[in-house]
Amino acid sequence: MMLVLAVESAGPRPGVALATEKGLLDEALVEVGARPGKHLVPLLELLLRRRGLSIEALDLYAVDVGPGSFTGIRVGLASVKALALVHPRPAMAVSSLEAMAWGCPSESEDVAPVLHSHRDLFYIARFGWEAGRIERRMRD
């Protein structure tokens, strides 16, 4: 079973999560507006300790690449890159909007996740399912 560390620092509530192919195992989030650079590594340590795991148990790193906070995205990318250098594992970038689309239960209809940019603008994309995979049908 593949164990994935997911890092979210682009949105208003930074955090980390552990997941497998079957779904979410555990997550740790900080308060809205918290500085992700200060909390990501301690949260990772907390999750691993709670699950009785070492960092060597991780198989893949995933990081949210927005849309979202530019500084938050950079913190998440730098954190995952540092982990991948010290504890070599594959790393992948995940769009916030695509991750939201994956969370929708229906494969029969298109979904259009929306994120507020905090500047009276919105990010939106449309996704649909093709052969068991989610496909972007409209850019954000």
Write up this protein.
29% of the residues lie in helices and 31% in strands. With 140 residues, it is of the alpha/beta class. The strands form 3 sheets. It has a 5-stranded mixed sheet. The model has no long low-confidence stretch (mean pLDDT 90).
Essential attributes:
140 residues, alpha/beta, five-stranded mixed beta sheet, two-stranded antiparallel ribbon, 3 helices, 29% helix, 31% strand
Count of DSSP-assigned helices: 3
- Extract low-pLDDT stretches: none
Q: List the strand order in the largest sheet.
A: 3-2-1-4-5
> What portion of residues is helical?
25-40%
Q: How far is the N terminus from the C terminus?
A: 33 Å
Largest sheet: 5 strands, mixed
Strand content: 25-35%
* Outline type: globular
Gyration radius, in Å: 15 Å
Given helix and strand content, the structural type is alpha/beta
Helix-strand topology string: EEEHEHEHEEEE
Mean pLDDT: 90
Number of strands: 9
